[in-house]
Write a structure and sequence with these properties.
Helices cover 40% and strands 14% of the residues. The chain has 25 helices and 18 strands. It has a seven-stranded mixed beta sheet with strand order 7-6-8-9-11-10-16, sandwiched between helices. It has a six-stranded mixed beta sheet with strand order 12-13-15-14-17-18, with helices on both faces. Helix 16 packs parallel to helix 17.
Length: 660
């Protein structure tokens, strides 16, 4: 009889025997493979933490003892054990989120899925428990060794060691990887522990080893303080790493041996002060296709065949693929171009460049702040760094962009993948803030390509700038079909379409050029003339954008970012400064944390559809709302539209003559 369906909460684990816990682990793995294969999601990381999560919930009492996952993509098993076993709509609207989400369960504490923050959360929560008389509660942070490459974890460790009278347990989930094999000195140190002969011996005998402690061992760990180091640390020499921080260390522990995990976690729980439990796990455990995937062991997958791991549908050429090829071509012609990333070599498309130019790639680990400032130093030394990140992670290094790159006029190019709406990954992974955030950096130049050819040419233009930061941003998914310009203006602005009259100027930022053209077609069917342009370089606002805006009655900006402080706001400000009072509608996403859903659903919610935009434009022109159909075939004009539009054009022309 299956065990998993009978688990509605963590305390249901208390009645299970060790043999039943092992059976439950096997069931959970089968469940994950079968269900994540249908929906897509983070498969490899969750297969690696099955036994660890079972042991955590057996030893600790969530939610009274909060468990914080760093990052949240390894929380699927946690969801299953806390009563959330309907994975049919995982990462889809109405279904479970791909990360912890407070609205789903009181067992979910931290929703942000940006790495290296869990120890700071745990530090704050444990201090609050102590300050409010809840010293009996424990706080557990599960942090991957990849996250230990981020400086924030070490800032937290420094402060955690400042006050040892707290019930705080740090579980280092050491699988040797984050998205890909973890890099840097910390990773090399962990690897030495993981592969040492003494560890392999402990790995084989871990059950007997930990049971040997018994009640006496627990009393010993409760009693030691100050300079006395944990007994187990002598076997792995990790005391060298943590002794100066005065944090006790247990391990390494076999992360797939539930009794050993429970024993170690119970020792840590009983200790009465911060403890690090070093757990060795295998990413993709129990699923051969994941283990055979050398790139990232199925870190994140789309829909796959659960038996073979083969993708069920080709996704087409992605924006990341186009960038990857363009960068290799650029690197072959420009030896000063080097590439940088923060633990995302493959996801951001740098792997081909690394294969071609292995000495010209720097992966700094999960350390965006360091990456950006180091890039400024590389630029000072005569190189041109191309720093590839997800757009959502750019905020982690904003101060460095502002003060180290911008202030020093460093020639650094930032390539932001997954910009705009990312869909199923939810609020912490949408790339909505980069346009608003980065454009306040003095001298910065921001481009948003509308198609593959524009990405290639804008990357070329970006690395030619050696006295200011440049940014290229593009969305997640397949690249848009090529949209040729009918004219390129003197400052590089592309005109994509001209209507019979100059009623509306539609400014499509990046892939929203396609949306702008659709809106223009609908307006044309209603007798309203629209000009569509792609600025290519959205920031700064180009002179020809100002010139075109002065000739139109209405300007509409369309951008895949929050409209507060976005490109539309900048256009409005520039027009005001130029004394042009053309009305501007800034269309973008609301300044909200947007939940997980499909890209199409999110854009529809925000009113960013061609039908809705065209309807609103006609309402402004006519003073009434009318349904606007897609112009496929004969579309009747709304009564009086042409006459009213003609009158508006005449009034606008007279106003222009008065200005002159």
């Amino acid at each position: 009889m299956a065990i998993l369906p009978g688990i509605s909460g963590p305390r249901d684990l208390d009645r299970l025997t060790p043999e039943q816990l092992a059976e439950l682990a096997a069931e959970v793995r089968s469940f994950l493979i079968e269900n994540v294969a249908r929906t897509g999601g983070h498969l490899g990381p969750n297969l690696g933490v099955v036994e660890l999560t079972i042991a955590l919930h057996r030893v600790f009492s969530s939610p009274d003892d909060p468990i914080i996952f760093d990052t949240g993509h390894q929380s699927y098993v946690h969801k299953l054990l806390t009563g959330r076993q309907d994975f049919s709509a995982l990462r889809s609207r109405g279904g479970l989120a791909g990360y912890p989400q407070r609205s789903e369960s009181p067992h979910d504490v931290v929703e942000s899925s940006h790495a290296s923050s869990s120890l700071s959360w745990a530090d704050g929560i444990s201090r609050a428990f102590t300050a409010t008389g809840r010293e009996d509660r424990h706080v557990v942070a599960v942090v991957g060794d990849g996250a230990l490459t981020g400086g924030m974890t070490w800032e937290a460790l420094n402060n955690i060691s400042d006050d040892n009278e707290r019930n705080l347990v740090i579980v280092v989930n050491d699988n040797g990887r984050s998205y890909a094999p973890t890099i840097g000195g910390m990773a090399r140190y962990m690897n030495r522990v993981r592969t040492a002969g003494v560890y392999r011996d402990l790995h084989r005998k871990s059950d007997r080893f930990f049971r040997a402690f018994g009640p006496v061992g627990r009393a010993f760990y409760r009693g030691v303080r100050g300079g006395t180091h944990g007994f187990l640390s002598r076997f792995s020499n990790n005391e060298e790493l943590y002794s100066n921080l005065d944090i006790k260390y247990l391990g390494p522990v076999d992360g797939h041996d539930i009794p050993s995990l429970m024993e170690a976690l119970q020792l840590a729980k009983d200790y009465g002060a911060p403890v690090i439990v070093h757990v060795i796990t295998e990413k993709g455990r129990g699923y051969q296709p994941a283990l055979d995937d050398e790139a990232d062991q199925f870190h994140a997958v789309n829909k796959i065949d659960p038996k073979t791991g083969t993708p069920l549908a080709a996704s087409g050429t992605g924006w990341t693929d186009v960038f990857a090829d363009a960068l290799v071509d650029l690197g072959a012609r420009r030896p000063e171009v080097i590439a940088m990333t923060a633990a995302m070599l493959r996801p951001t498309g740098l792997a081909p460049f690394a294969e071609r130019f292995p000495d010209r790639v720097y992966d700094v680990g999960i350390a965006e702040q360091h990456a950006v400032t180091a890039a400024a130093g590389l630029a000072y030394g005569g190189l041109h760094p191309v720093v590839a990140l997800y757009a959502t992670f750019m905020g982690r290094a904003f101060d460095q962009v502002l003060m180290d790159v911008g202030l020093h006029r460093a020639g650094v190019t930032f390539v932001l993948d997954r910009a705009g709406v990312t869909g199923p990954d939810g609020p912490s992974h949408h790339g909505l803030w980069d346009l608003s955030m980065l454009q306040i950096v003095p001298g910065i130049r921001i481009a948003a390509p509308r198609d593959a050819e524009r990405l290639r040419e804008e990357l070329e233009e970006a690395v030619a700038v050696d006295d200011a930061p440049t940014v290229i941003r593009y969305p997640k998914g397949a690249v848009a079909p090529e949209i040729p310009a009918i004219e390129r203006l003197h400052d590089g602005v592309d005109v994509l379409s001209r209507g019979e009259g100059e009623d509306v100027l539609l400014i499509g930022i990046g892939p929203f050029a396609t949306l702008a053209l659709d809106v223009a077609d609908r307006l044309k069917a209603q007798g309203i003339g629209a000009t569509v342009i792609d600025p290519r370089w959205a920031i700064p606002v180009q002179p020809s954008v100002v010139e075109l805006a002065a000739r139109h009655r209405l300007v509409i900006t369309l951008e895949d970012g929050i409209r507060v402080g976005g490109v539309g706001t900048r256009v409005r400000q520039v027009l005001r400064e130029a004394g042009i009072d053309t009305a501007v509608d800034e269309l973008g996403l609301p300044d909200e944390y947007i939940d997980h859903a499909s890209r199409e659903q999110i854009l529809e919610d925000a009113g960013l559809t061609a039908g809705k935009i065209a309807q609103d434009v006609v309402a402004q022109v006519l003073g009434t709302r009318v349904p606007i159909a897609r112009p496929t075939g004969e579309v009747p004009l709304h009564t009086g539209t042409v006459e009213i539009v003609t009158s508006i054009r005449a009034e606008h022309g007279a106003e222009e003559r008065r200005r002159r």
